[in-house]
Structure formats: C-alpha cells, structure tokens
Design brief:
mainly alpha
Length: 169
C-alpha cells in the first residue's frame, strides 16, 4: 500500500480520535457546552488564534500518524489489515477471519497507540494554552465557527495563507 493510502486510513482513525478527545473533554467538563449553539462574535485575532491552533494540531496529527504506522508495522501487520481487524469489532460476522496471533498483535499495537492518544490529548491542550486561549474559549470559537459562514470563510482564508507561508518557508 502506498504511503498516501496509509496516511488516509490513519487520518480517518486519528480524526476519530480528535472527535473522541473533544467528546471526552466535554464529558469530563473540560469543555462545557460542546456542541451547543453559540452567538459569539469573533474577531480576526480570535480566528487567527484558532487557525494557529488547528494548523499546529494538524502537524501533530501528521507526526502521530507516522508513529502509528510504525507501531502497526512493528507488530508485523499492514495498515490495511489493522483497519480490517478493527472493523471486525463493528461486524462480529467478520471476526472469524482474524487469527489469535493477529488479535495478539492488535492488542500490543493498541497498547502503544493508546499512549499516542494520551500524547495527542496532552499536546492538544498545550497547543491551545500556548496560543493564549482557554479550553473554554477554544470551544466557544469552534462552536461559533460552525454557526457563522462569514467566520468559516475567514478561517479558510487564513488557513490557506498559513499553508502558503509554511510551503514557502
């Protein structure tokens, strides 16, 4: 499988992890009101901070994806097979195609990947704080972004500018 396809598989997996992170923070009270409606007016500075946080999180996600691939491959599995086995948990009818040895490899990989998920959680919180935002304010901005097409447009413009600067430098 190409490196690009591996990254696509793991991107979906990690994106799910980021969603889980946000839900966990919501349930634990670290981000109150996640998913609620917000009438917050956003300044360009706040959107820029949000862009910076998300850009850094994308870079962290990319780094962790590479480490996840390495963990999976160190267990003697391909990313495709790893994803297939994970899918058997959703569809027990497919479980008979998984050997005990493969389950052992999955369990070992998942133990290490769990540590990466914790690292993702910690780094995400640190990135938000380093940008001068509280977790609560970050969440408010995220909600406001969902409800404002003008803020989304400004976010997309700023993110493209940042990507262009990153590509040049």
């Amino acid at each position: 499988m190409s490196a690009f396809r591996k990254k696509i598989h793991l991107s979906a997996f990690i994106t799910g992890g980021l969603i889980v992170l946000m839900l966990v923070l919501s349930v634990t009270g670290s981000i109150p009101g996640l998913g609620g409606q917000s009438a917050v007016n956003l300044s360009d500075e706040e959107i820029a901070s949000f862009v910076q946080v998300n850009h850094r999180m994308i870079n962290i996600q990319s780094e962790l994806e590479e480490r996840m691939i390495k963990i999976i491959e160190e267990q003697g599995l391909t990313v495709d097979r790893y994803v297939e086995i994970l899918m058997t948990r959703e569809n027990p009818e497919l479980a008979s195609s998984v050997t005990d040895k493969e389950m052992e490899k999955i369990n070992k990989a998942n133990e290490k990947i769990e540590g990466l998920n914790q690292e993702l959680h910690e780094k995400s919180l640190a990135v938000i704080a380093e940008e001068g935002l509280s977790i609560e304010r970050y969440e408010e901005i995220a909600n406001a972004m969902q409800n404002s097409t003008s803020s989304q447009k400004r976010y997309n413009e700023m993110m493209e500018e940042l990507r262009g600067q990153s590509a040049q430098g």
